Amino acid sequence: xxxxxxxxxxxxxxxxxxxxxxxxxxxxxxxxxxxxxxxxxxxxxxxxxxxxxxxxxxxxxxxxxxxxxxxxxxxxxxxxxxxxxxxxxxxxxxxxxxxxxxxxxxxxxxxxxxxxxxxxxxxxxxxxxxxxxxxxxxxxxxxxxxxxxxxxxxxxxxxxxxxxxxxxxxxxxx
Length: 174
Description:
This protein has a single domain (2-9, 23-166), classed as Phosphoglycerate mutase-like (Rossmann fold, 3-Layer(aba) Sandwich). It is of the alpha/beta class. The protein has helices spanning 29-45, 58-70, 87-95, 111-121, 158-166; strands spanning 2-7, 51-54, 76-77, 102-107, 136-141, 150-156. The protein is globular. Helix 2 (58-70) links the parallel strand 2 (51-54) and strand 3. Strands 3-2-4-1-5-6 form a 6-stranded mixed sheet. Helix content is 34%, strand content 18%. This is Phosphohistidine phosphatase SixA.
């Protein structure tokens, strides 16, 4: 399985007066615009995936919707991607889709960082993985999604992704 781990784009800072329910906290206008450009870079590298699982929190869900607008499938809510869930719960959700060739997950820090570490090393804290808001990690999982079963293919920042979308397509003939 190819696993693409996407951290939600830049959202508003926590504010209990504006968003007493933190799950409703949205992306900023600038965060949304910057991620639209980053999403074009993502789709340039990964034109399609089979499944997108997303935290139902507004900021993650909107990030997944922006990827959908670029050509990925509509997101499917996955509560295990909400903040506070341990990585073994996310791996359990991924196991439900073990036959799928490529899956993208959209969620939050620190859960996604812990998930990547857990899949790479079997320990949620042993690999110091930092995914920037709007960034993406590509993991290759051999067989069933188990702790320590992944290998890191790449980790890209949103700045790199925005650069990719602004470059003209390369001519494969050289």
